[in-house]
Input
Amino acid sequence: MTDAVSAALQACESSAQYEALKLAFACECVQRVRHLLEDEGVARCLDILAAYVKGEADRAALDRAAAEAAILANRHQGSRSLDGVGHAAVSASYAVANALGGRVVQAADYAAYAAVYGDGGYGAVCDPESFVDERNWQLGTLERLANALGVR
Output
C-alpha cells in the first residue's frame, strides 16, 4: 500500500500546492499516532509541524524542529517489552522526524507501523493484512487534503 500512497503523491507533484499537501498529509498521519509518543520533546516538534501547516510558524522554526526531532528519534531507547508494543513509540518518533524532514512516504510508513505495533504488538507487523485499515485511512486522508487544497 505504500506504493499507492507514493503514486497518489506523485500524481500531485506538478501542483503549486504540492509542498503544502505533503506536509499536511504527513502531519495528519503522525497526529494519528501522537498518543504513542513517549518523549515530550518529540511532541513539541510535532506541534511545530502542525503550526507550520496552519501558517502559524515559519520555515526556520520547522527546520529547527526537524533537526531536533531527528536527534530525539535516534536517541530513543527502543522497546523493552517482549511483545514489541514498545516499538510503537520508536516508530511514532521516527514518523515525526520524517514528517518534519519532508520525507512524507517514510513518515506515513512509520506512522502505520506505530499504529499496528500499538494495536497488536510485534506479531501484527508480520501480517500484511494488519496494515490495510491504516493504509486505506492514509489514502482517504490524502485524497481529502488534495481536494481541500485544490490539488488535481
In short: The two ends are 21 Å apart (CA to CA).
